[in-house]
Amino acid sequence: MPNYSPKSADGAPPEPSNETPPPDAGADEPKADAGTTGGAGRIHVDADWKAEAKAEKERLARETADRRASVGQGPAAGAARGPGRLPPPSLAALVQTLATQAAIFLSSETDPETGRLLRNLDMAKHHIDLLGVLEEKTRGNLTDEEKHLLDRYLYELRMAYVDAAS
User: Fold this and answer.
1) N-to-C CA span, the chain
2) Cβ-count burial of 127 within 10 angstroms (0-12 exposed, 13-18 middle, 19+ buried)?
3) What is the pLDDT of residues 124-144, one digit of tens each?
4) What is the pLDDT of residues 50-90, one digit of tens each?
5) Contact at 8 Å (CB) between 154 and 131?
6) How much is the pTM?
7) What does DSSP say about strands 42-43 and 37-38: parallel, antiparallel, or unpaired?
8) Are 151 and 136 in contact (CB under 8 A)?
9) Taking Cα atoms as reference points, which of 124, 128, 129, 132 lies closest to residue 106?
């Protein structure tokens, strides 16, 4: 097996060789333990190390699945959160979307592209009123959690609107 130096002449790391060493190559060099470098910058990987890595990967996958199950997320819920995928539609998502829009229009931030102030009290009031309509039309049909979420956002946004308008 060729003897690699940590860096080649141009400073780049050496390219691994696809050549198989002769049976007696490196016989007089000590082998390092699993996961350590030995000899001239080589890593000795044995079957035990591979089995241990595979077992660790499986253990982590099981723990992740157990955590999702314990918080009410099945495998499908985790799959819905990949790149380009959206979470399932819900009342909470609708409330949070409208509340976010209202909060943006209540802010004193500027648009990074145009430099214009984002504050627009008419649009903020419109989104707060939409949340009020949602509250009125869903009264008696919400879970306690959904009602609490909607009530909390309405209260906080109404107080922020009064503060911004005064």
Assistant:
1) 79
2) buried
3) 999 999 999 999 999 999 999
4) 777 777 778 877 877 777 766 555 555 545 556 778 888 99
5) yes
6) 0.50
7) antiparallel
8) no
9) 124
Query: Are the beta carbons of 131 and 157 closer than 8 angstroms?
Result: yes
Instruction: Look up residue 131 and give its amino acid.
Output: L
Please answer whether residues 48 and 34 qualify as being in contact, where contact means their C-beta atoms are separated by less than 8 angstroms.
yes
Q: Return the structure tokens found at 130.
A: 């939409």
Q: Which of 21, 22, 4 is nearest to 13 (CA)?
A: 4
17: left (phi over 0), alpha (psi -120 to 50) or beta: beta
Listed residue (73, 90, 91) closest to 81, CA to CA: 73
Phi-psi region of 26 (alpha: psi -120 to 50; beta: other; left: phi over 0): left
